[in-house]
Each structure stands twice: as structure tokens, then as C-alpha cells.
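Section 5: illustrative case.
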């Protein structure tokens, strides 16, 4: 019996020791996790929460500056366009007949005369092929023409390159008028589409040849107005009629 009591007492002591050892391990383990958690809390609490707000404010400032630079650029372009228009209009006002000079008229009509290639092409190619080329050209020219009136950048470049050949109504950006090239293509498409080849070729030839002859003779020798019409002289009108008759006769 004594031996059994001693055995039980020793077992109890060992169990207590074992329990205390096992109990210490979870405690240390828990403390280490607690310290790690507390250190993470400190890091989060030490994070500067104002940094994202500052970054967003800086981004807003940059976007605002970018928009302002674009607006300033557009404003400067519009001012350049107005200056170019006024300069070109002043040049024409100094010409005796308040129009482009005779030399500029010759350059303008030379480009106009090149349009004679349209009726000549119609003599050798069918209507469908001619329209397949002319219709896209007409639409592109109309879009370009309108764009040069609405877009300040395109307007400035257009006036710098072609401004010396433009008439007054073509210079003013506040008036939406198509230029001569657009009307040449529009009239060519309409004439070729609706009329037989012979009539279309004669009509377009009169337009491109007689108009050039009338402008040259009228600007050079025309002194008296025809029916008091502005920029229309008796000499120019006669030159147009005679050349048109000869073209139709041929």
C-alpha cells in the first residue's frame, strides 16, 4: 500500500510539472503573437494618411494646369487667325479694285484651269468610274473647307499657305462660305450625274475655260461695269460669251 501511495504521489508531481511546462508554452506563444500584432498596429497607426490626399490634390492641379495650357493655346491660335485675316483684308483694300491682285488672279485661275482634266477624263472613262473618284474628293474637300473655318489651327495654316489667293468672303472665318475648289467639285458631280456625256463635257469645259478667259480679260481690260454688277465688266462678259460659243461649236 505504501508503495502504491508513493507511486501515485510521484505521478501527481510529474503531472503537475508536465502541466506547468505545457502551460508555459502556450503563454509564450500567445505573448509573441500579441507583440507581433501590437507592432503591426503601431505601423498602421504611424502611417501618414494625408499622403493619398496630397497625391490626389497634386493630380487635380496638374489636370487643371494642362487644361489651362490647352485653352491658352487655342486662344493664341484664334488671335493669330484674326491677325492673319485682318492683314489679308488690308492688303486687298490697298488694291485699286478692292480685290486680289491681277497676278494672284492668274494663279487662282491656273488652278481652276487644271480642273479641265475632269471633262477630258469623262471622254475616256464611264460615268461610274468618274463619280467613284469625284464624289469622295468632293466630300473630302467640303469637310476640309468647313474644318478650316471652324478649327483655329487648320485655319491659321490654311491662311498662311493659300491666303494670298482668297477673296474677301473666303478670308472671313465668321462667314461660312465654301471656296472655289469645293464648288468646282460639287458642280462637276451634279453635271456628270444628271446630264448626258456630251452636255456634261461641254458645260464643264465652258465653266473651266470661259471663266478663266473672262477673269483675265475682265481684270486686265475691263473698265465699264456690266449692268452695274460688281466685279463684272463688259469686256469680261463678252470674252466669256465668245469663248463659250467657240467651245460649244467645236
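Designed sequence:
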Amino acid at each position: 500500500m505504501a508503495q502504491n501511495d508513493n507511486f501515485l504521489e510521484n505521478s501527481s508531481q510529474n503531472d503537475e510539472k508536465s502541466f506547468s511546462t505545457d502551460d508555459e508554452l502556450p503563454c509564450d506563444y500567445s505573448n509573441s503573437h500579441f507583440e507581433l500584432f501590437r507592432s503591426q498596429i503601431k505601423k498602421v497607426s504611424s502611417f501618414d494618411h494625408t499622403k493619398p490626399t496630397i497625391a490626389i490634390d497634386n493630380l487635380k492641379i496638374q489636370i487643371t494646369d494642362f487644361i489651362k495650357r490647352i485653352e491658352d493655346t487655342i486662344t493664341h491660335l484664334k488671335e493669330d487667325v484674326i491677325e492673319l485675316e485682318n492683314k489679308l483684308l488690308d492688303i486687298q483694300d490697298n488694291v485699286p479694285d478692292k480685290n486680289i491682285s491681277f497676278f494672284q488672279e492668274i494663279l487662282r485661275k491656273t488652278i481652276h484651269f487644271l480642273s479641265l482634266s475632269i471633262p477630258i477624263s469623262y471622254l475616256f472613262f464611264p460615268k461610274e468610274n468618274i463619280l467613284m473618284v469625284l464624289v469622295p474628293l468632293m466630300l473630302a474637300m467640303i469637310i476640309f473647307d468647313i474644318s478650316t473655318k471652324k478649327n483655329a489651327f487648320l485655319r491659321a495654316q490654311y491662311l498662311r499657305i493659300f491666303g494670298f489667293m482668297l477673296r474677301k468672303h473666303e478670308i472671313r472665318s465668321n462667314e461660312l462660305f465654301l471656296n472655289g475648289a469645293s464648288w468646282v467639285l460639287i458642280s462637276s458631280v451634279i453635271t456628270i450625274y444628271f446630264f448626258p456625256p456630251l452636255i456634261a463635257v461641254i458645260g464643264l469645259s465652258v465653266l473651266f475655260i470661259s471663266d478663266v478667259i473672262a477673269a483675265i480679260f475682265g481684270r486686265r481690260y475691263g473698265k465699264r461695269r456690266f449692268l452695274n454688277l460688281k466685279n463684272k465688266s463688259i469686256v469680261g462678259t463678252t470674252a466669256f460669251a465668245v469663248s463659250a460659243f467657240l467651245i460649244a461649236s467645236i
